[in-house]
## 1
Amino acid sequence: MERTIKGILPPKRPGTKAIVIFDDGTTKKFLPQTVAEQGLFVGMALSDEEYKALEAADSAASAKARAVRIISAAAVSESELKKRLTRKGETPEDAENAVRWLSDLELLDDAETARRIVARGAARGYGAERIRQMLWEKRIPRELWDEALQTLPDMTEALTEFLRKRLGEEPDEKTLRSATQAALRRGFRWEEIREVLERIKS
């Protein structure tokens, strides 16, 4: 079966797709870059094989465009990016190819992403355990954790400031327990917390 393009409607606004109208009355949305790269024009006839190839090209372009938007907004690992792409409706194959494409362009680097996550956790005043959780949540490969955590600065001052604010001038036992639990939730180890508490009390 052959279908002929009877019209091409441009995107109504940035970020939307063009609409291609065929002679059988059907319509199909394609990315503007697909229309341009595939050289679509009114009167162009497409065989079934050519139409399927056009759909595949648009699907691959869609995954790449979405992948670029995701990494522009947040630090993500390769695994997390694949997950997000498929969750958004991209096929596993297109997601895999988009991730490989970004990696080949050196725009996706799990080791660098891990270091950025560590820096973000430190800026928020988190301890190493909470940052490890962040690395896990972002699906950073475990073999990259230790190297990234070596970039974590000494968080003693941040922990001291956090506990001082929680404790106040004359903390009772209840306040002390609450402050300790809060520090544990922020990823600090009990040994770190105890050492800072002793320093504050002295």
Note: The beta strands are 2-9, 18-22, 27-30, 45-47.
## 2
Amino acid sequence: MKILFIYPNSGSQTGFNYGVAQMAAHLEQAGHETVFLHLCEDIEPLPNKEQFLQRVGDLKPDIIGFSVVTNQWPLTAEVAGWCRDELNIPLVCGGVHATVAGRQVLETGLFDYIMVGECEDAVVDFLDRLAEGKSVRDVANLGMVLDGKIVINPVRPLPQLNEFPPKNYEIFDFQKIIDAKDGWVGLMASRGCPYNCTYCFNHVMVKQYCHDLQCSVGQLKYIRHHTVEQVIDEIKYLEKNYKNIKMYIFDDDLFIFNKKFVMEFCRQYKKISSMPFVVNGHVGLFDEERARALADANCYMVKFGVESGSEKIRTQIMHRKMSNRMIADAIAMVHQYFMQSSCFIMFGLPHETIDDVMDTVKLMSQTLPSRFRWTYFYPFPGTEAHRMSVEGGFVDKDKIGSLMNFTDSSCLDFGKEQNLFLEKIGRLLPWFVNAYSNLEVASFYREKIEELMAMDQDKWQSCSPSLHDLDKKYSARFAEEGKKHYAVKYNPFMGVMSS
């Protein structure tokens, strides 16, 4: 059979779909044919209905599968509606959204099937049966409507990454993705995370798998790795077949978790590539031995999920049990080994106050990471943080259905004063961090944020569009004067230290 994978990725950062790349490899190995459409403005202009249907008609798929995250659901629903109107082939919805909100997806009537969890083996079983005209009723990980009732089958055991064939890059215009991401190429060496953060879908996955497989978290073995050899071979393949690669970024939830893997990878990597790379770390696991090995292998940056500078919010709302001291020490150790540090931070969490947000600002100003990237919290259905948001009465039902990313606005409602404050800090967080730091520019930025904070909604709306240009002007001035400072750089939700 021929399956067309569609990846809605509009209005947000250009992504590479690891799951589709891996499923395509499994399907091709099993004798099926795969093709791909990337709905992303950075790759090519979004098609209208006529253009889309013409493209699908040219590809002549037997079945269409969508890989969907929740904020891309509005676009997914529109495109699936086009397919429903004009095409007489089965539609399948997979990805995170189908896993956490599968029942709601099927209730729309837009899709014939959903696939939940990790589906590399399930999708082969599913297409094999369709091709042979057999029933798919009992295919694990599959959901459908039978006799007017929604049926979602239990999941099968998690696949083992060390048994996977190499990803299929050929179905993508991968060179165009590399160029759109300015040479940054994503990799994944592992799946899973040992932590239980309330806002992340990992705990939803673990709960479902443990329930369906009747096993404990320990028995599930959620964290799995590719072999070091597999990862090294993938890098060799990329460097042989593509150009303009400038940086590898490991998108594993927690690359540094398995110390033995990290040490062996670093030993092997420096034998075959001089390309710098980026990893995700955790302040509770980042030690000197890991830091030394990563730096020696040309690791450029270690990223930490700080999320909030308020220990109360981290502990009570996010279930992230780490202290500000641990965060400061981890950032300092990265710098000690001449790597760059990066912090993920999040605003607009349920029960968060303005003072809590300012604690995040102050933590960044005290620890001075090389850069920080911020988003607004988004309550993914099925997560504990979604429950907190709904029960606390914070969810703005109009906004949550229309947001396509996590960086433009919050979909929670905290009242006019705090909502306006979140808009301001989400626009110009580097100014706030500069203002509360011990940097030479602090007094200048303190005056600027006092002006911002005094603005009412109308004044803010009128001047907000020009503020990034003003940020560039100030940054150029201070760079010429040799004064360290943070400025908005690379994208509208990243603050980067000038040095």
Note: The chain has a mean pLDDT of 96.
## 3
Amino acid sequence: MIDKKELEKMFEFHGHKCWASTLGFRAGLIALNKLGAKRIKSRGLYAVVETGYAHGAVCFLDGLQYVTGCTVGKAAILWKPRGKLAFTLIDAKQGKQIRIAYKFNPEIRERIANTQFMKKRAQGIPPHEIPDEEAWEAVNIILSASEEELFVIGEVESTDFIPPEEILGAQQCEICGEWVSLPYIRILGPKKVCIDCAGYEEGFEKGFEGV
């Protein structure tokens, strides 16, 4: 049973109502239940997420972050960008993990595509400008479908995952003067500087690949 009050809080966190964030919310709940885990407040759970960086259904990730507590700010999101609505939730304390992926279901896909919400999104209308009742039409498709219709749910497996260490050290770049975490300091002659001041050319996504 989905707690509608929590779902509404997730929409507030996300910024708008949509089917993809609802899907992430449901998937996260399933993963927590299968692992016998609870939403984290600091550390213990980690999500290896397979969403990409800019595809239209990446809202999935906000639903997942909200319900599991695995947020970017807790360093509990590890990136494995594949453009899929899929993730592996890892319980480091129990040494267990489970992978869940959105199933390619033609019937569900067609029903969502035929909603006014998706038709307006296809026209370039921002989701927050679409009336709530139209957004709920798409959301309710996800809420009313069974787990089997929506997801490929893997088995709970053991894992030897080692959580990334928390890095607290930082220092000032000796050129621009900005605060820099120690792993991102580079040596330029006699100076310790940030990547930008060192002149590195680096793709945006390189620092976010995770595993």
Note: The mean pLDDT is 92.
